[in-house]
Amino acid sequence: MSSPLLPDYRTQSPEVAARFERLRAREVALSVRGLTKNFETPRGIITALNDVSFEVHKRELLSVIGPSGCGKSTLVRILAGLETATSGEVRVYDQPVSGAGPDRGMVFQSYTLFPWLTVKQNVMFGPKIAGRSNYHAESEARQWIELVGLTKFENSYPHQLSGGMKQRVAIARALANQPRVLFMDEPFGALDAQTRCQMQSYLLEIWKNVDITIVFITHDLDEAVYLSDRILVLDANPGRVRELIEVPVPRPRSFQQFVEPEFISTRHHIDSLIHPTQSHVREEFPVLKFTKDDPDVV
Ligand SMILES: Nc1ncnc2c1ncn2[C@@H]1O[C@H](COP(=O)(O)OP(=O)(O)O)[C@@H](O)[C@H]1O
Ligand SMILES: [Mg+2]
């Protein structure tokens, strides 16, 4: 997949190399050691994750990418404490974690707002459960809603919002619990292409303005390269770490960078890891012809 016109994805400018040096020197926010998850099913045991290990540093934005079924959701559900691991260890700022906790927040792909509550009430929900007074929960909620640019909609109900706006509320609601690590499982996967691009930019703005470390699950290559410091590439059957890539694209990011050589070479490399060859597609595809071959339709 390498091209003589493209730089090697491992080539970093001095600025980018210095940035990674600083990133590696930061505290470890999330440490995952030897994580294995087996599911017992009527058809036998499925190993969804096999011996997965990695670390995420404070204020890093790490994406996890891999083919469908490689265990991305299982991984993030275990990290968030919504699922138990078969073996292995997860630590957040060096504290072993088991089960869900306020130090970790989660945003899902599907819209998970309470439909009977307004935007403000949805965002206040976590702080109120945590014991904040109505007054404090409300003033905090207002700040998070302002951060995601939805002040005008604080009294709207979820059904009155677009998909992108609902996900912004979901982000505000997760941040209102003041987690130290935020997990996002394909949060923009259900949005149309244009809204998705907008949300990616919003997310970078939010990340810049909040003291948060983000683990972002996606199967979209452009999204992973555009957002991330590093990308954890998983293999399927069983889900395991294929490679951990340092993205050589400088920050701040912009959509103009999509055509820069380092962006394309990184994208190319991940693509070659995830889709090693297209030939099997042709082999598996039955060939039925309902028309003559046309040299212009190939
Ligand atoms: N609750 C479950 N019971 C049995 N198998 C499961 C369960 N959840 C996930 N799996 C299996 O684990 C593998 C990984 O699934 P998942 O984490 O959803 O992958 P991804 O999010 O990467 O598409 C798949 O083979 C899936 O069928
Ligand atoms: Mg998934």
Describe, in plain words, how this protein is organized in 3D.
The protein has 298 residues and is α/β, with parallel strands linked by helices. It has two domains: 14-103 and 179-284, Rossmann fold (3-Layer(aba) Sandwich), CATH 3.40.50; 119-172. Helix content is 35%, strand content 23%. It is built from nine helices and ten strands. It has helices at 14-25, 72-80, 119-129, 134-147, 163-176, 193-209, 221-227, 261-274, 279-284; strands at residues 28-41, 44-57, 61-65, 87-92, 95-96, 104-107, 181-185, 213-218, 230-235, 240-246. The strands form two sheets. Strands 6-7-8-3-9-10 form a six-stranded mixed beta sheet, sandwiched between helices. A four-stranded antiparallel beta sheet has the order 2-1-4-5. Strand 9 (230-235) and strand 10 (240-246) form a beta hairpin. The radius of gyration is 21 Å and the shape is globular. Magnesium ion (MG) binds next to helix 2. The site of magnesium ion (MG) has 2 residues, from helix 2.
